[in-house]
Design goal:
The chain has 556 residues and is of the alpha+beta class. The protein has four domains: 193 residues, Heat Shock Protein 90; 79 residues, no CATH class; 136 residues, no CATH class; 130 residues, Four Helix Bundle (Hemerythrin (Met), subunit A) (Up-down Bundle). The protein has 16 helices and 24 strands. The strands form five sheets. The protein has a nine-stranded mixed beta sheet with strand order 1-6-5-4-7-3-2-8-9, covered by helices on one side. Strands 10-11-14-12-13 form a five-stranded mixed beta sheet. A four-stranded mixed beta sheet has the order 16-15-18-17. Helix 6 packs across helix 7, helix 13 crosses helix 15 and helix 15 packs antiparallel against helix 16.
Amino acid sequence: MGARGLPDGWLVYTGAVVQAQASVAEALAGLVHQFADPMACFRELVQNAVDAGSTEIDIRFEHVDGRLVVHVDDYGEGMDRHIIDTKLTRLFSSSKEGDRTKIGRFGIGFVSVFALQPEVICIDTSRAGEHWRVIFLPDRSFRRVAREQPVDGTKITIYKTMAEKEARAFIARAREVIAFWCRHVPAEIRIEGRSISRAFGLELACVVTAEIGDARIVVGYDQGDDSSISYYNRGLTLLEERPGPFPGVHVKLWSPELEHTMTRDNVLRDEGHARVLGLARAQVEGPLREQLIRELAARAGELAARTGALHRRGDEADGLMRQLLRHLREDDALPKAAWRTPLVRCHHAGLVDLNTLRKAAKAGRVTWASQVSPLTEALHARGELVIAAEGEVPAGAAEREPPRVCELAQVLAGRASPRANAVLCTSLAAEEPASWGVLRGELDLLLSELGPRPRPVAASLEYANSAVASRVAIAQEEVGAVSSVDSLTLTSGRRLIVNVQHPTVLAALRLAAQEPELAAYKLAKTIVLEGGAGLSLQDDHKLAAKAMERRWRRMT
């Protein structure tokens, strides 16, 4: 060990060792621990490097002989003796005071390094032909030593005895801190040779960027309800707050009017802060909402260009639709163009705007479906809108939520848009199969014993996502009509739509070739029971007796 407990070789210089200053006053101890997080020292060192004009900063860590060694190298203007004596080693005498292009206004950024409780801090620097090494000791006294060899900028080395496991945890945390606070600094920052610098922006589906005077503002919609606001001065993170002041919106503000507190854990809520926040609000309530409509329109256009494309739950467009719904629910002012811009893809009707959708929703004429079908065609033919939306599920599978575009009718007009195939049905014309004529006649006679004549007609109930494909028969005004699946019972004036593709009907048709009365009895009983009204023993005997009577007459 060399002088004052330093490892051999640390104080080997050709120049004279000059005592520059005695112990720092007690006030220094308080300043050292004023920072909310000791790791804030890395932010301060990066800040000082940028203020010195460095466009590159290298940070490295190593563990040698039981010591953690931290290197922070910048390539800025460096320091001469005057700066060292009057700025680096004298608190609150920073040349940055009054200079809004530099944010280390308290002149105490370097002091934050002592919060790490290092054993030694070594600074090598050169400027204007002067080359110096400044060594800060554990008692916070320091020595300034002349060097023969120049250095490019300022190189800071921090030494701290630390076990290897503890050092690994320290390094991991330091990397996180540096990346978080310094990723937008307008200089390339490398940790272990790898750049952590990132462009100043937001990686979101809908973003607006503005530069107003010295302020840079980036606002963008989140995919959910999360929000945040982050403050920056010359790219250095001052504070990130969650949630932010604007629901569903992330905001980044970069301005020389934003200043951090002495403890570096907040921003000053002064007039400058209020002014910059006002600029952000204007962007959120104006250009960002306009961009939201443009993004939704673009995605709707992409759907329209692809055959069979659907609005989907959970994709970027769905996340943006969530924000539009929030604005509509909260009665936020939307751009006038929002109401006239086609945003919703419908089967058959193509793209429609909010005005069109609201008008149809007020009339209860909006549903949604996952694919084109005879039902959606029938709905369109009678002037209804069918939103093209993912959400159909196989029989027996759990229902899943449809995309949020299906909530628009409820928000716009207070009337929900149901899944078309879940609440409505239709029927399709079908060729009359063999034996249908004789079976229809017998079926008509038998059912007339129970009430109004049903006038059976052959049809099909099987089509894409049909809610009645499993039914033997339904009652409708006519084949091809659209009916509620809750009102398919036999009543006067309706036709009995018999599903001639149903296995039970096919079996009855085969039996009708030999025993039409028996086939009609079995089919009539099935139709009545399927209707849900039940069949009393008396009515069952009535049907059976009528069928046997008809059979006896045919046989004799």
